[in-house]
């Protein structure tokens, strides 16, 4: 009477069909699928309805046949943005890598949590091993002692950094709470990721107590400005406790100068956390790791192998050189889960986290690391920087049609397509009208490329610079030299068409 | 010169091989794989070394051949705890469901984030649709207005509830921080999940300001005790702001009485959050949803379809009936990501979260809901309760060998195997020595079952009750009636062998 067949309209045979189609899709991404099939929400809804499996869940939803589910999967792949497309440059992540996919698919099937050794013996050891390897890659004090976790994204990792720092600065906070404690103040650069802002909101520190420190022209935090900001806060009788540095800023890709920042932090007894979500990959390259110099002096750092290294989302590492502090800060000792009288309880990782269940995100990176080896990963990282460099040289060789916003960083190139009448564009001398015109260019070209489905590149304004494109070479996408030339030709064509030489602001409003 | 073939030691052909093996593994889980192959860490390391692919990442790690990677995958499945095994009852999750697996595998291949519509058009709409369906299932004010997110686990969802509640109680906290603000106090039951403790640590509220409210014998929070606790806190001049209720406690499966709790919260203007991570599934059953009565009056709630409903980890919903508050609390308006001048920007979900990247966890649930329909999911949930009921009756029919710790909850059965000389076991009359003996029984029987690999059931102590087993019927595992009889026979055999009638405390120390 307890047969559960009833509950399983789908067998594992369905999984065979589904996985075949997923693998076919990955093949196609290398052979001319559009990067996006641009439909507004109502168009998407129509496509699913016409496919016989509406997007909505009805009030009395029927069970659909397996063929309908396969059709839904097909439609979902067709209308999802194709991050594996060679010309998807819109985000700091890209095509997922096959070993990473296989590793992730395995964790889905194994379906367990890295909270206790007894339900995740292999994943627990794999996580420990990957963290140990990364600690050795960082070197310095991390080779002697470290602790860490794979966490759900870089923002959460930055929250961990701030959370641990507060607990070191105010050991009573875990029990007493912030009310009645010291008035703590955190520092980060003006160009740091917005997750620091989320972190001060969530932890109850407050955005008034997050000081944005000035950056140089490249977008890197100025140590002298940090020193000044700390002195000013001390002068107000408040307690500086945390500096959130960035190694590879989101937009310009700048690396904060970690050695001088670490020196300032040591002088004032502040916790230095490095958000290396994007730039941490430089550690794997002998040519590029100088950008991370000083990171071994940081109290904690994060790195997202799901960004440059093409691990399927999510794959985020948090590491600290303070071996006991994760447990001190987060342990709650839940009796139902971390029973000391069960086997191998001393290997349980779960009491160190802010979560309970936690995915075994280390496994895919472990498998990929075994697939590539140190040399393969190094080559990958170097390649990303070489592509950025080559792309920047193409921009410089474009006779003014394209223009670098600033000198390129190792992994980021920021550039404009400049309408003919604004060439060469000089931000410091440009009129408001010129800036208003230029600010319309990137959205318009991007939209045209999205409609055509041939490429996606992100744009954004920054300080006084009107909207500009940012290109990065993330993920495991196939990419040929001619692709980049073709891309620039296309963008130039769109630019010329949308912003002809005589266009004015009105004409730019398309 | 930009060919990227070099970077891909693995082709999608590898994925075909890998997925075939994963599907084979799922087949085997239904046909006699051990639930666990118990090896200590050093034994696991030896197994991988003997398999030619050591667990460690070397200082100069070589690239391994694809066959080695497949061998690593095989070993990982072999030595991972098999949560799909019919007799894996160790956690509130179990075997993953095929539609859920297919949906999750697709999201791995699509590899994108639910932060902006432009990179996740389908996933954004799917998330919106699933949340809307759930809001209608909850009913009441949720039918009119709601907002929500899929988040990385129930603990994070509980953190969201507390975070939003604080921002409602103290709208200045986002800017000013907690220092200088009201002295806020939260309430939850003594038997609530430990994530509430993590939440007060992370948000800076402090464990002193989390009051554990007394429960009745079933483990449900007493509204009168809550009322008293609130009055006491007010008497101290502090500000109660949040009640964290539980629908389906982790150990006993108790449902807090939500209607009277909601009334107390209304009276005092407190935010009521319901942690329905486990018990929320009752909403899908006409027979069982009365356990959730009053949940529609909650300000927020969470539910984990990766628990009872067998979605692959992670699949956690956070919902609130306050449509604007997620954005008010979490928005940072990052210019580089949420550009208002890109297409369809108004559909972006990302600014509402504490993350930046966020996995499209709604998709697998959407696909499974289409596969099962409302009726199929209802049958699943009912079945889980029927199995619990049937199991409890078997315990009662065991002539004293097994004994219920308390009356069973809809989805949880807590029980002892009682050594002959302690039968019937009466906790209130038992000596310390008797309790000490009984506390050794569950760990010993569990260990024996782990060594043999035939079943895994969790145990824990609670209040005065010595270690007892908790069984739950989670996930999409195949399960036959005879399995449960066999299980009880096995446990009884182990018990009789390990704790013969004449055993005393010393003999029990195995």
Name some characteristics of this structure.
homodimer, about 500 residues, alpha/beta, Aspartate Aminotransferase, domain 1, 3 domains, 7-stranded mixed sheet, 16 helices, about 10% strand, globular, disordered N terminus, disordered C terminus, Pyridoxal-P_BS (chains A, B), PyrdxlP-dep_de-COase (chains A, B), pyridoxal phosphate (chains A, B)
Summarize the SSE layout with pairings.
2 copies of one chain form a homodimer.
Chain A: H1 12-29, H2 41-50, H3 66-79, E1 88-89, H4 98-110, H5 121-138, H6 141-144, E2 147-151, H7 154-169, H8 173-176, E3 184-189, H9 195-202, E4 210-213, H10 223-235, E5 239-246, H11 258-268, E6 271-275, E7 300-303, E8 316-320, H12 325-330, H13 362-396, E9 402-404, E10 412-417, H14 432-452, E11 456-462, E12 465-472, H15 481-498, H16 505-508
Parallel strand pairs in A: 1-11, 3-4, 3-5, 5-6, 6-7
Antiparallel strand pairs in A: 2-8, 7-8, 9-10, 10-12, 11-12
């Amino acid at each position: 009477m307890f047969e559960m067949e009833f509950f399983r309209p789908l067998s594992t045979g369905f999984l065979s069909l589904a996985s075949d189609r997923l693998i076919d899709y990955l093949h196609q991404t290398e052979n001319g699928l559009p990067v996006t099939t641009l439909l507004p929400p109502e168009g998407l809804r129509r496509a699913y309805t016409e496919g016989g499996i509406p997007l909505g869940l009805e009030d009395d939803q029927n069970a659909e046949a397996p063929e309908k589910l396969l059709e839904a999967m097909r439609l979902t792949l067709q209308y999802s943005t194709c991050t594996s497309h060679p010309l998807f440059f819109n985000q700091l992540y890209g095509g997922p890598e096959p070993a990473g996919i296989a590793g992730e698919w395995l964790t889905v099937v194994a379906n367990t949590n890295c909270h206790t050794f007894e339900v995740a013996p292999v994943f627990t050891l794999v996580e420990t091993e990957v963290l140990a390897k990364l600690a050795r890659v960082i070197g310095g004090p991390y080779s002697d002692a470290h602790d860490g976790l794979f966490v759900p994204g870089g923002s959460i990792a930055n929250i961990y950094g701030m959370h641990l720092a507060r607990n070191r600065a105010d050991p009573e906070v875990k029990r007493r709470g912030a009310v009645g404690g010291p008035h703590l103040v955190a520092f980060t650069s003006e160009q740091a990721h917005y997750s620091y802002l989320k972190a001060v909101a969530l932890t109850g520190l407050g955005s008034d107590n997050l000081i944005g420190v000035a950056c140089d022209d490249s977008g890197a935090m100025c140590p002298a400005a940090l020193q000044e900001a700390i002195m000013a806060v001390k002068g107000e009788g408040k307690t500086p406790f945390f500096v959130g540095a960035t190694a590879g800023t989101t937009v310009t890709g700048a690396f904060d100068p970690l050695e001088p920042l670490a020196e300032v932090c040591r002088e004032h007894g502040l916790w230095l956390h490095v958000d290396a979500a994007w730039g941490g990959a430089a550690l794997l390259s002998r040519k590029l790791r100088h950008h991370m110099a000083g990171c071994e002096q940081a109290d904690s750092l994060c790195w997202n192998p799901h960004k440059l290294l093409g691990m399927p989302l999510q794959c985020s590492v948090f590491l600290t050189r303070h071996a006991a502090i994760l447990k001190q800060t987060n342990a709650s000792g839940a009796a139902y889960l971390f029973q000391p009288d069960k086997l191998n309880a001393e290997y349980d990782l779960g009491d160190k986290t802010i979560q309970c269940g936690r995915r075994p995100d280390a496994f895919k990176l472990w498998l990929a690391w075994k697939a590539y080896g140190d040399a393969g990963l190094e080559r990958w990282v170097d390649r990303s920087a070489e592509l950025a460099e080559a792309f920047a040289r193409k921009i410089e060789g474009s006779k003014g049609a394209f223009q670098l916003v600033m000198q390129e960083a190792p992994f980021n190139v920021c550039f404009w397509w400049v309408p003919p009448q604004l060439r060469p564009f000089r931000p410091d001398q440009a009129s408001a009208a010129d800036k208003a015109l230029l600010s319309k260019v990137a959205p318009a070209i991007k939209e045209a490329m999205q409609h055509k489905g041939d490429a996606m590149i992100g744009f954004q304004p920054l300080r006084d610079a009107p909207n500009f494109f940012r290109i990065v070479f993330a993920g495991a996408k196939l990419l040929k030299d001619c692709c980049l030339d073709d891309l620039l030709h296309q963008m130039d064509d769109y630019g010329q068409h949308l912003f002809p030489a005589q266009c004015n602001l009105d004409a730019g409003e398309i």
